[in-house]
Amino acid sequence: MKQKIFSFVSVFAIVIAVWYLAALLMNGNQLINNLERKNQSWTYQQIIAGAYDVKRPMLPAPHQVGQELIKSIIDRPVTSKRSLIYHAQITLNSTLLGFVFGSLLGILIAVGIVHNKTLESSLMPWVIASQTIPILAIAPMIVVVLGAINITGVIPKAIISMYLSFFPVTIAMVKGLRSSDKLHEELMHTYSATAKDIFWKLRWYSAQPYLFASLKVAIAAALVGAIVAELPTGAQGGLGARLLSGSYYGQTEQIWSALIVAATLGSILVWLVGIAERVLLRRRGELDHA
Q: 27: which of 51, 129, 142, 160 fits an S-S bond (Cβ 3.0–4.6 Å)?
């Protein structure tokens, strides 16, 4: 445990050091260009002192992002439209709905593919081909089409999240449902087990570890989909909207603080899926092997 904590702290310290160095180089160059454009002289001491206090810096320093996080999370009420908690909650709603839709769709497609060879040969190529379309290209189309039939709000964003999250679940579940031991399956046939019994008592049991592994990927993909979906919609709320407004007005601290909140939210969601997986493993008696 101590070694893990030491490794985490070491990596974190290296990242912060590299971040400060990159901010010095990028913001320092920005300062030099501004001073030379005004025909003003400068010294390296002046550049080093001012690189971490530039308004609208190219790369905000960690302490600048930290100050923006404190201002956007602690100093503002949760109901404020300038609060990152407010925007994170909007994005979370779309993420969870899209994740549920995508997981269910992925499981249904996988079950159909495993039980129907014709469906596998006809549907699987389309499932794979769907992931070659850039989400930035398809997101505006989905929003426009659904808006034309008066479907707005969280549903279009959830559908885009579903689009990104169903694929890993489909692929993993196809593999998982086919991972059951053939001898066990033949044994169940000798006991006159029905197809339903074989599915729920053997195939589904064997596929559960694959399912939870794919859900960790799917929940992160759903979050990305929800954020991307907020960009073309011109949404007034959500982390994607926060990123967009920050890019419009050159508020790089706002952009980076929204990115950190999004990364933190994604980590929490993956962690929660991991907890559910551990509960399942404990019930199966496999926790020691996890």
A: 51
Dihedral of the CA atoms 8, 10, 11, 12 (nearest 10)? 80
pLDDT average, residue stretch 146-162:
85
For the packed helices 154-177 and 84-115, what is the interaxial angle rounded to 10 degrees? 40
Measured CA to CA in angstroms, residue 158 lies from 81, 154, 161 at distances of 21, 6, 5
* Burial of residue 160, with CB atoms counted within 10 A of its CB: 0-12 exposed, 13-18 middle, 19 or more buried: buried
In this predicted model, which residue has the larger pLDDT, 73 or 143? 73
Query: Which pLDDT tens digit goes with each residue over 62-75?
Result: 998 998 999 999 88
DSSP-derived 3-state class of residue 152 = coil
Residue 290 has pLDDT above 60, yes or no: no
Single-letter residue type at 225: G
Q: Which residues contact 5 (CB under 8 A, 6 or more apart)?
A: none
% of the chain surpassing 90 pLDDT: 34
Domain topology for 84-289:
MetI-like fold (1.10.3720)
pLDDT at 8 over 50: yes
pLDDT in tens, 243-284: 888 888 778 889 999 999 999 999 999 999 999 999 888 887
Closest CA to 84 of 231, 270, 254, 232: 254
Residue at token pair 């905000």: 60
**What separation in angstroms does the CA of 254 have from each of 28, 81, 236?**
20, 13, 15
Domain assignments of the chain as residue spans, ordered by start = 2-59, 84-289
